[in-house]
Amino acid sequence: MADEKYEKAKKRVEEIKGFYTHLAVYVCVNAVLVLINLVANPESLWFYWPLMGWGIGVFFHAMSVFVFSRFPGRQWEDRKIKEIMDKMDEGKK
């Protein structure tokens, strides 16, 4: 039981870490794109297109990590996985 809780907690930390890594890369890359755009061609602003497009991806990544992970669907999946694994263990006896 303790191992199961540890694995769930570890998976959750990896999900959160993955989001923050995604966010950091988004901020750094887009800062460089803004700089390139403003230095190379300030009359024609295009940096906001990748900023918005990728921003949508970051938004949905955040939703999947911080909002949708709280819904019963994930708990149901965990219970179902445990149920199937228990049945498999019973079949080996």
Question: Could you give the count of β-strands?
Answer: 0
> Distance N terminus to C terminus?
21 Å
- Beta fraction of the residues? under 5%
Radius of gyration based on Cα positions: 21 Å
Major β-sheet profile: none
Overall geometry comes to elongated
Helix content: over 70%
Mean pLDDT: 89
Q: Helices and strands, in N-to-C order?
A: HHH
| SS class | mainly alpha
Q: Helix segment count?
A: 3
Weakly predicted, low-confidence segments: none
> How many domains, in number, for the residues?
1
What would you note in describing this structure?
The chain has one domain (2-92). Helix content is 86%, strand content 0%. It is built from three helices and no strands. Helix 1 packs antiparallel against helix 2. It is elongated. The relative contact order is 0.09.
